[in-house]
């Protein structure tokens, strides 16, 4: 099946059928930012929320100055918390270090947990060690999903000195938290991490035990390099 041309995509984005607009956005992934971004912007404020959401995501894979500025504006001002969360996630995909401050503000100031969750995940994607204090704060949240995001992100930024704080989640009743911990410890090589991973490798939940086993293997491979 032939890929549509930019002209065909532009026409498809004007379709009254939201499915056509979604397909058009998906097709833009193959085109360079200079060609794709002007078309993505046409549906950035579409009346159908899934179209808007996909447009925001599309900006996150086009690494341009304009995309960064649009995403920060959406994160800080859009009235729809889902779009703000999408913008936070897309900023993580951009991997632009300047997103650190907007993401930190979103984590502390946005009242919606979904936005704060996306901000925490993206802080991990940036791999900026400055995020450590924010992520440690997220560990104290009563929202399990925020704890999950923070655990994963602390692993991403390789904050080895946070291992003791992370290990408090090893006996968590939430298997997703234990899984995130098992994955994170694979990036945090200490004796305590290895000991905890051996414990988690025996976890009754298969996804936890599998994650722990893979992390142990990764740490062992690293020690032989």
UniProtKB/TrEMBL annotation:
GO molecular function: lyase activity; oxidoreductase activity
SUPFAM superfamilies for the chain: ARM repeat
Source organism phylogeny: Bacteria, Bacillati, Cyanobacteriota, Cyanophyceae, Pleurocapsales
Chloroplast listed as a keyword: no
Natural source organism: Hydrococcus rivularis NIES-593
Gene Ontology CC annotations of this record: phycobilisome
Record protein name field: Phycocyanin alpha phycocyanobilin lyase
Keyword Lyase: yes
Domain of life from the UniProt record: Bacteria
Short name of any one Pfam family annotated for the protein: HEAT_2
Keyword entries, A-Z: Antenna complex, Lyase, Phycobilisome
């Amino acid at each position: 099946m032939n890929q549509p041309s930019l002209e065909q995509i532009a026409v498809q984005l004007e379709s009254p059928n939201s499915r056509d607009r979604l397909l058009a956005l998906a097709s833009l992934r193959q085109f360079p930012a200079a060609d794709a971004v002007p078309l993505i912007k046409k549906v950035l404020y579409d009346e159908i929320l899934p179209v808007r959401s996909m447009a925001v995501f599309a900006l996150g894979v086009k690494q341009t100055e304009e995309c960064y500025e649009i995403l920060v504006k959406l994160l800080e001002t859009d009235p729809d918390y889902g779009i703000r969360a999408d913008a936070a996630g897309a900023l993580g995909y951009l991997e632009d270090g300047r997103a650190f401050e907007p993401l930190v503000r979103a984590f502390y100031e946005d009242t919606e947990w979904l936005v704060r969750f996306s901000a925490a995940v993206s802080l991990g994607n940036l791999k900026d060690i400055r995020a450590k204090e924010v992520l440690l704060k997220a560990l104290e949240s009563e929202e399990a999903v925020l704890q999950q995001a923070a655990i994963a992100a602390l692993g991403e930024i390789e904050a080895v000195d946070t291992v003791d704080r992370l290990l408090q989640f090893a006996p968590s009743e939430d298997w997703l938290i234990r899984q995130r911990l098992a994955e994170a410890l694979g990036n945090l090589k200490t004796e305590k991490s290895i000991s905890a991973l051996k414990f988690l490798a025996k976890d009754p939940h298969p996804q936890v035990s599998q994650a722990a086993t893979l992390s142990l293997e990764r740490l062992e491979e690293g020690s032989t390099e």
